[in-house]
Amino acid sequence: MLETYRKHVEERAAQGIVPKPLDVEQTVGLIELLKKPPADEDTVLIDLLENRIPPGVDEAAYVKAGFLTAITKGDANSPLVSKEKAVELLGTMQGGYNIGSLIELLDVDMLASIAAKALSHTLLMFDSFYDVEEKAKAGNAYAKQVMQSWADAEWFLSKPNVSEIVTLTVFKVTGETNTDDLSPAPDAWSRPDIPLHALAMLKNAREGVKPDKLGIIGPIKQMEALKNKGHQLVYVGDIVGTGSSRKSATNSLLWFMGDDIPNVPNKRAGGYCLGGKIAPIFFNTMEDAGALPIELDVSKLNMGDVIDVYPFQGRISSHGRNDVLSTFSLKTDVLYDEVRAGGRIPLIIGRALTDRACDALNLNSSDVFRRPQSMVDSNKGFSLAQKMVGKACSVEGIRPGTYCEPKITTVGSQDTTGPMTRDELKDLACLGFSADLTMQSFCHTSAYPKPIDVLTHHTLPHFIETRGGVALHPGDGVIHSWLNRMLLPDTVGTGGDSHTRFPLGISFPAGSGLVAFAATTGVMPLDMPKSILVRCKGKFQQGITLRDLVHAIPYFAIKEGLLTIEKAGKINEFSGRILEIEGMEYLTVEQAFELSDASAERSAAGCTVRLSRKSVADYLNSNIVMLKWMIVEGYGARRTIERRIAAMQAWLANQELMEADIDAEYENVLEIDLADIKEPILCAPNDPDDARLLSDVAGESVDEVFIGSCMTNIGHFRAAGKLLDKFGSTLPTRLWVAPPTKMDRDQLTEEGYYGIFGRAGARIETPGCSLCMGNQARVADKATVLSTSTRNFPNRLGTGARVYLTSAELATVGAILGRIPTVDEYLEFVKKINTTSADTYRYLNFHLMDRYIKKANGVIIQTIV
Question: Against a cut of 0.90, is the pTM above it?
Fold first, then answer.
């Protein structure tokens, strides 16, 4: 085992990275060596046992815990690991497979004191808390010691407090840093391997950043040179962390700028991030990792500066001087406790454990922690979002700024973050989901899987289903197109994709750590954001689509001073707030998702769309049939699917929908009259905020066109097909077509549209994300592209590509002409499909489709829920 492992160490060292953690087979081999250690290998073997095996409920941790437990019982022996040492090592495993053994050891006199000390600093107790409480009540002195230690928050007080002054060296990236910069999509396959994936951070050229190998390896040498100044690095940017909800972005940043975690291999925490604006999801993932994110003016901070940060005074100075380079106030003082605890999630779990112990011991709540402050109540009404979150907290409504932990009803996980979520679930010792429904998709990797993706496709479904989750199959399609059909009205959820933006209820997308926490515990931490109301009125004008309304939000926001394009000193009133959209109640739920989905591009915390009871009822009736069809098709976990069917049926029996109060308060109100949208609106290269009228960009030549992503539904493909059919010739552009689900694919095939796409020379992709994320196929370098995808960040769809975001209808016209059309040309084309719009924009109503109804009718619900 050692020879093979050392070869691996050498291979990784040649890449400039540390070895991988031990897997289960290596751990088994290590244990055999520990039983009969070879000469002169004692230090190496103990280091591997202590520091190179993942904690929690990883398979290797199971083997490690079993071996250490056997030593404590005398069933196994090692000259290097005494019984006392074995107990100490069990105490470093955080939770899961070690807990039962440590609790049993409270009854073993010789080892009980060590076990008590270990348990006193273990947070992931969950229901095992009651086993310790029971022993304490029965008179076990060591169990009493553990309970008192938890109540006294010794686990927290034993950790160092945030320093009064921190000296850091600035690593500054000017302009906007999005998560694609920190965690590039083409390297998504390596995200679970944090040290390897971190090599790709900032690998593309930009001002002031010097990649080691352009397009392949980021500025490792540049960062190492700055570290030679003797201080920890701090990431500084004008705008930091926009885009996808990738904890991999945080992982990469902290790999170079964070601190090692004792006994946890290949993962770092802590660190600092300074930004003029820090995107909300990225801010939260930094919190979760124990970092201190600070929003402040960074204009006086430059690459290589050595600075002193005064966290409690709220100022930054040049190192060793009393000048003031910038001042700040933290979002909340609770951040100090989060950093001390090692992250927001450890703080929440640990604080709850302390409160639980205090309650069990009839003590007052601990005053050790900085508690979230209650907001002063208002006599005003609540918005729709505030009511939804209130319902999830069993109150009428939640005021902005209030800390709460709403019940999470639905959780989504996709495949490029799924392996990280799996690892986070292991770290949380999760063996079963508490969230009512957790779903895993494979939409980002199924079309062009790498060997590591294939392994994920084979192993992750079992992991999810055995914990009570629902696992889709590779090739099924886009996560949101499926997850939306599992939603319940007026409930709260989350997901590990920034476009987890529910059209029913409300969702707060998050990084993989918080997604794992929500799935495990059934709740999530939330500082209730303020809301911005987008109120629509009027009627759509000829040729104007819902996608044009999506782009009208930034277009009119710019006019109202709510949004700017310039990165330095950027204004984005939507950032970190909830978009609440009214005036479009007649939309179907599928249509509403176009609006809620695009709230991600505004960096909003979430979105609500007010809909009619009829729209919601039609959707749920359709979805019940689809869920029953899934049962027949063998999807699991069946019990979870049946429970969700029952919940939908219960809603249909009453059909109650929440509405905002008339006197609800909003931070801003943006009024949009549909009559004022007289021509299509696109978002220009390469910024989803840069909304422009068609007349301002008409005439530019187009190389490639992409019709796909979660922003599309079957109606868009019918519209594209009808335009292409009337054209009837070879396209001057490269056209990509990727339907969102396999059900869309099957229906489009049945209706003859795949034949039309084929005759037009389109490249037809597997249902899923296709070009949208940029980790699978890509457009040609420096191509000009019309795309229906979600966002158009630099290099996302292709290296140096210039990407316009647009409707499927306009994209198709551009594909036919080989250029962006004029307004008149576009309107002339769409006349050809307006006469059949009722047929074109039909949606997948499964309760009206025979092949789904027949299978659904054969389902007998087995579970009483």
Answer: yes
